[in-house]
Amino acid sequence: MLTKRGSKLLYKYIISYLLVFLVPFTIMSIVIYYNAVTSLREEIEQSNINNLEQVRNLTDERLSELVTLSARISLDPRLTPYMISHPYYGGEATDELRKYRANSAIVEELFVYYKQQDVLYSTNGSYSMNALLQNSEELQRVGRGELLADLHTDVPLIRVASNRILYHVPISPNSEKPHGTVMFFIEESTIINMIRNLLGEIEGNVYIFNKDRETVASVTSDELVQTEDIQSLSNGFTGVETVQLHGSDYSMVSVESDVSGWTFVTVMDQNQFFIKLNNVQVIMISFLVVLFAVGLVLAVLLGRNQYKPISQLIAITHKGKHSPPFVKGENELENLGKTVTSLYENHELLNETIDLHQPFARDQFLIRLLRGHYHDSEEIELIMDSLKLSLKGDRFFVVIAQFELESFSNTKDKDKLLQLVSKKTLENATAYAVDFLHSDSIVVMISMDVLEEKVNRGFLDKMVHDIQKEMKDFTVYKPTIGVGQLYDDKTKINRSYIEALATMEYKFSAPQGSVLFFEDLETETHHLLGYLKEEQMKYVQSTKQGDFTVADEMLGDMFEALGSKGLSINEIKCICFDIINTTLRTVSELGFDQYMKQVDQLVEFKSITQLHKQLQCVVEVICNEVEEKKDSHNNKLKKDILTYIEQNYKNYEISLEVVAQEFYLSVSYLSRFIKEQTGETFTQLIQRLRIRYVKERLTRTDQPIKDVVSDVGYKDVANFIRKFKKIEGMTPGEYRKIHKG
């Protein structure tokens, strides 16, 4: 019957906890799911936008560099129409053009054209218009007429010719009447490589269209998407849009350049969203299932834990013969209520019984208090409240009264004396007496509520003599009394008791009926071995630091003091042995056990001068050993730090703080240590290692530059490319072209 009802109550608890868990769990699951889908879509689209903007910005930067290059050409005195066409100086002009071409990472060839001339000048020499058209299939497709028109442009002009991009920049740029044009040849593959380096493994197709909607460059991974479709769909559109191609939904992202007028477009099948979303769904569903399982387990555990005390109480209360039985329709809690009521009634009856035995319980408590069994003032207060005891005030001391043999005619007299002392009315004080020791002694514990300035020897002496006088009326002889010291903590009462016991050891030398105070038994002692402690501390620390100069100075001060203080020979020997012991302990702490025998020989000294010299020799050896140990430690520390940096320099998170924490050093110390040991700052060291790694990967692999840079711990690829160029004098792409075998 109990088990059946118990299981129902347990199920109710479990279901209630489960409902409390399921409501927020369901809401949280829905919110997390939709946020995950939305966030994933926005993340992918924003990633594509950022990538496209990066491509656009880099392209604009390269084209702007060409405009700057054209301006420099127009101002170069070696490239004037006269100089460039001169039979003698023309060679220098051609060399100069080669230098300008080398300054750009995207230019394949450049031509300088001056109006009123039918000649174009390049890095390979001069060409007539007809000769240039014959040697270039791309220019033949453009045609002589259109080429001349482009060369006479007043604003920068971009034309797509087969697999080349022709960029015409009038010279001087921004001039109202330009006198010529610089024509740059840019390979489409150069633009494509630049896109791939920045985008890495792109998902979908990437297109660049000029103002005339001609394809400047494209990277294609989805063959189903036709360039013509994207040309029409992206016309005049920038941003993110969902388009339908061949029955499938595609996400199209478009950005436009204000510099070149080009439109940059990426097209990606939206199924890719759902491929990633499926992975997210699997993770989320797995997480939610685990979370639900955890919630279910917690609900069961919490339900069982909540019911467990009830079941235990039911089991306990039904062990007795007189426990109230279950009635129909009654649950466990109601039955427990009846049981508690019955227990309360029994408790009241028990309290009445306890009151009859309270004196015994009080004596047991006082005995345990005197023996120091209690270490918590709150515990003492609780027990005193239950026993209806009160210690007035916050100052306590203990008195032991010892009587002569046959002082009491019977035991009742002693009991009366105990009751009398416990009931005695003292001024601002309470006293409790207990028969604790032998039949001829009693212990009195006294507490006072008196201002500190009023508590003096006379006050205590009067109080103790008043108690002694009361005792005399019950005994034949006046008792001898021992008094412990005064304390302000209940947990220290046992100390006063021990002191009172100690005073009783001296009663044989005092007259019968004396009052002995512990404080009168204390004697002052003077210790010599604390002498020269300050000098010894400095001596020890300087030795541990390997500073022989300071250690020798402290030795000199100590031995000089020995000779000037007028000490006896025994006092001098004690201090000498103390110094030897200090030296021995210091050598042991430093771990130089091989020198222990040498230190042991010091005890055979014949004079303090001899000891001083021997100690000087020992300390000098120890200090040198400490210095060598420091050097060895620095070499090992250098090796360990450099090894750690070699193993972790490719981590993005590596920093001076991380390395300092790894080796339990301060950041400032580590920075200074690396500079002293390597001649480089931490930043220079990390940069050198990373540049070395990038150069190695560029020459030995075909890995995209973006991936190489990411692998070495850089997230800002463009910033690293600028650093690389500043250090090596060329971009990573150029370095790969030159050095790769």
Beta content: 5-15%
Q: How many β strands by DSSP?
A: 16
Q: What is the residue-mean pLDDT, rounded to a whole number?
A: 78
Characterize the main sheet: 6 strands, antiparallel
State the helical fraction: 55-70%
Subunit arrangement of the protein = single chain
Structural class: alpha+beta
Tell me the span between the first and last alpha carbons: 89 Å
CA-based gyration radius = 50 Å
Query: Low-confidence segments, ≥5 residues, pLDDT <50?
Result: 1-6, 523-530
Number of H/I helices? 26
Described by the principal axes of the CA atoms, the overall outline is: elongated
Give the strand line-up of the largest sheet: 3-2-1-6-5-4
Transmembrane segments: 12-34, 282-302
InterPro entries: CdaR_GGDEF, Homeodomain-like_sf, HTH_AraC, Tscrpt_reg_AraC-type_HTH
Protein name: Helix-turn-helix domain-containing protein
Keywords: DNA-binding, Membrane, Transcription, Transcription regulation, Transmembrane, Transmembrane helix
